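Two proteins were folded this term; both appear here.
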Amino acid sequence: MPNAPIFTNCSIVVLAGGQGQRMGGQDKGWMLWKNRALIEHIYAVVRPLTDDLIISCNRNFERYAQLADRIVTDPDNSFSGPLTGIISGLSAARHDYVIFLPCDAPCIDSALLEQLYQQVQSSAVMLRQQGFYQPLFSAVQRSSLADLQAQWVAGERRPRIALQQIGANALECADDDPRLANFNEPAVLEQFS
């Protein structure tokens, strides 16, 4: 844990709870890229930013626990989808603001996270690129937890819709911004190696 986090009053949750279907069922967070696991690339960027780093995962708990201040899991370990990770992360967060990132985006940088951090202090925010929202790159006020839980109980499972329902604004990214590249298929790992 860093002594003086750059983002005060902000938790960061890395979403690593998926089944990795496009990776042949492998845990994406531990896939190697440039001789390091994808989660380790994310960790190197986010660790100095917060004193509350949470990883949402459904397997490899001991490995992830070595990188995080805490881990959270889906309540029923059923790989319920990223909205579950967002809700679990908000429930566990110690701070008023929470940034969410997928574990398979190793090109993320602190400048983009700074933009999320600045904007979340007035409203929830999701990145948008080429007209498409990227809800797994988002920042939410912890006070939105009850609203997101209510949406889950009502049957909503799509993070984009749930975040729009709480009034999330768009943070536009350039069409060719490489920081949002998702390394979620073996071919993409090879292409960017």
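Next, the second protein.
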Amino acid sequence: MHEAFVYDGIRTPFGRFGGALAGVRPDDLAAHVVRAIVARAPGLAAEAGAGIDEVVFGNANGAGEENRNVARMATLLAGLPTSVPGSTVNRLCGSSLDAVMVGSRQIATGDADVVLAGGVESMSRAPWVLPKTERPYPAVDLTLVSTTLGWRLVNPAMPQEWTVSLGEATEQLRERHGITRESQDAFAARSHVLADRAWADGFYDDLVVAVPGVDLARDESIRPDTTPERLAGLKAVFRAAESGGTVTAGNASPLNDGASAVLLGSAAAGDRIGREPLARIAGRGASALDPQHFGYAPVEAANRALERAGIRWSDVSAVELNEAFAAQSLACLGAWPVDPDIVNRHGGAIAIGHPLGASGGRVIATLTRSLERSGGRWGVAAICIGVGQGLAVVLENVTSGAGSR
């Protein structure tokens, strides 16, 4: 078996729903990060990307302009040789983290030396769909269904408790774990403060590539003036407050548009890429449970990834946990023996945004850069996934500044 390494990771700024990136097709967003990450690899750029063995992209929707295998479309639109193959994976919110895992396994088995992984989502441009009728010429009304987020066209054989909304599922999760509204709002405010600070400190300058023709220099959903007190004034969305509702638009991730890309390679691929590796993919983990408990699935996924990496939580110096909801994130942190201060040091999805198919690539790229800058040795990237799944990856810092922890 061969070891797989992260050589680079980038993303676009994440735009708000209906915001600055709403006018850009998702396949164009994907092509942009493909083009940009190839340009940052001197060896690949010299051959116009011909040195890439495979492109694997994640996408959660697939019903709109990103249909027909967006990975392949992105490589063609980016100007890569037609000989570079591409495949699209869909594991909903975890799609681009899954793409990284798929690519790393291709390298581990020797099927590839260089894999470009990533993901894309335009939640603004997700279409409405109209189901086909079972009979022609029906004399009844038909309903357009939004494909932006959540369950749609649900099979009636599914138990109702499985198909509750993501927000209601989160309300149930926070009830089980005793998570208060106050702790959720404090966690959400922290996300905005840290994201704003990271941008101001230049942390994201080399991680984020602007989209040509779009006036968006940084993530559009960050609100630097957010405080727990302001968030406390928002109404609960999925349950009325008098019924115990605590999940609001402020302590949940927003709807977003964006794309991410991660360049993976074997140890021997450095010359072909023209860069030194940044981190080794040391462990991978996947888990699943009842669909309505989706927010807790990263707990076991990360534990499995750590076991496969041969390390413990006490060895970990940085964690990137995608913040689908504050309550969901707090439930996971309560289950891990980890210092909350090492989690999402540069902000999380509540502030930065959660374009479903792109978020896994974001957490991997951010974790890689965080380890490089801090000198920490081990890090965990984890994400929860609708319909009851979780994914996690353990990275080992292999840069010259890597420390013992």
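Residues 150 and 312 are 34 Å apart (CA to CA). The first helix runs from residue 26 to 39. These notes refer to the second protein only.
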